[in-house]
């Protein structure tokens, strides 16, 4: 099997494992190890597994994600988000989709400050989603607003797509 | 199945302890980052090796939280297909997936232990304040053990469901 064919088979296997409800991160790692072992040798594949886990878990650019999730949790637990949304609701709540407009603007402002879409998704998801649920907004619309607000207005670094999607899905 | 319930209860307790270690890692990240930023901006005296400490604390925070996140169902997975299948097939799918995940994490424990040993022999240290890296590799391997136990419990439970139904 050529490397290209192996890659296509690997993607197919990955999709099958996703559909079988295997956690996304584990499925990616599992298929990656099998693919690398097939294309080279099981020994280097297993060595790469350990090394890659160690390096990814200690990756400095990713340290922003747990810190922003923690910040979002503090903001949520202290009631800042509730007061913020009460204000936003009072200002634009009478418009159709008023809270969605407020969420997009808040995400845009936060993304412009921190420069990371992943951090915006983590923080604003924690703050905005419970409040939008309280006002009976659908999850699809709420998550769409958070994702769009963070992504369109980001000015600095962007995280890999997998991190963003992981965070958006996690908020569900 | 009394044994399985005891096993799951043990897993929950063990994962809870590991989660506290992960939380400690997260707090270390927060405190060191705050001290570093305030020290650098206000007193022109950043924390020496803050980056080393933050990444290693992150390693602890992430790896020691995996098992607890798994028990709480916080890992991202695609649900829409399997939930439409009959319960017996769902149990069968759960069995296969748990087996794959168990195999994967057993490999992780094994290879990370070997990686830790290679770091220990090579005397690998962090870049700035020269913290030895091998205890952290052993730590990640150790943190993957409760994940293996959780998947083993899931595997046994799904086998039990397949056999019973």
Distance between the termini of chain B: 14 Å
Give me the Rg of chain A, rounded. 20 Å
Number of strands of chain B: 0
Number of strands of chain A: 0
The string of secondary-structure elements of chain B, in order, is HHHHH
Helical coverage of chain B, percent range? over 70%
Beta fraction of the residues of chain A?
A: under 5%
* Class by alpha and beta content of chain B: mainly alpha
SS-derived structural category of chain A: mainly alpha
Which spans of chain B have pLDDT < 50 for at least 5 consecutive residues? none
Low-confidence stretches of chain A are 153-172
Proportion of residues in extended strands of chain B: under 5%
Helicity range of chain A: over 70%
- The general outline of chain A is elongated
Number of helices of chain A: 9
Structural account:
The complex is a heterodimer of chains A (172) and B (165). Chain A is mostly helical. Chain A contains 9 helices and no strands. Chain A has helices spanning 3-19, 24-39, 42-57, 64-77, 80-92, 98-114, 117-134, 139-152, 161-171. In chain A, helix 5 crosses helix 6 (98-114). The radius of gyration of chain A is 20 Å and the shape is elongated. Chain A starts with a helix and ends with a helix. Residues 153-172 of chain A have low confidence and may be disordered. Chain B contains 5 helices and no strands. The two termini of chain B are 14 Å apart. With 165 residues, chain B is mainly alpha-helical. Classes of the chains: A mainly alpha (172), B mainly alpha (165). Chain A binds chain B through residues 17-26, 29-30, 33, 46-47, 49-51, 53-54, 57-60, 62-63, 66-67, 70, 166, 169-170, and chain B through 26, 29-30, 33, 51, 54-56, 58-59, 61-63, 70, 74-79, 81-82, 93-94, 96-97, 100-101, 104, 107-108, 110-112, 114-115, 136-137, 140.
């Amino acid at each position: 099997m050529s490397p290209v064919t192996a890659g296509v088979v690997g993607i197919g296997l990955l999709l099958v494992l996703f559909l079988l409800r295997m956690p996304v991160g584990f499925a990616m790692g599992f298929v990656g190890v099998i693919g690398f072992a097939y294309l080279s040798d099981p020994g280097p594949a297993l060595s790469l597994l350990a090394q890659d886990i160690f390096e990814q878990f200690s990756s400095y650019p990713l340290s922003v994600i747990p810190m922003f999730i923690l910040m979002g949790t503090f903001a949520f637990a202290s009631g800042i988000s509730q007061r913020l949304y009460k204000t936003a609701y009072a200002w634009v709540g009478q418009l159709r989709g008023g809270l969605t407009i407020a969420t997009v603007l808040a995400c845009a402002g936060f993304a412009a400050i921190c420069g990371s879409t992943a951090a915006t998704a983590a923080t604003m998801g924690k703050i905005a989603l419970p409040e939008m649920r309280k006002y009976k907004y659908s999850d699809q619309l709420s998550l769409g607003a958070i994702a769009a607000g963070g992504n369109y207005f980001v000015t600095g670094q962007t995280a890999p797509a997998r991190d963003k999607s992981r965070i958006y899905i996690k908020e569900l | 199945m009394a044994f399985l319930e005891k096993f799951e209860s043990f897993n929950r307790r063990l994962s809870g302890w590991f989660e506290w270690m992960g939380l400690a890692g997260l707090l270390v990240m927060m405190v060191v980052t705050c001290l570093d930023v305030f020290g650098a901006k206000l007193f022109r005296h950043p924390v020496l090796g803050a980056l080393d400490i933050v990444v290693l604390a992150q390693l602890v925070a992430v790896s020691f939280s995996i098992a607890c996140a798994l028990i709480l169902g916080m890992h991202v997975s695609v649900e829409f297909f399997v939930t439409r299948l009959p319960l017996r097939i769902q149990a069968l799918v759960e069995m296969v997936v748990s087996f794959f995940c168990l195999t994967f994490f057993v490999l992780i424990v094994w290879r990370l232990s070997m990686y830790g040993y290679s770091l220990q022999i090579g005397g690998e240290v962090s870049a700035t304040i020269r913290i030895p890296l091998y205890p952290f590799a052993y730590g990640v391997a150790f943190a993957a053990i409760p994940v293996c136990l959780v998947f083993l419990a899931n595997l046994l439970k799904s086998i039990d469901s397949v056999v019973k139904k």
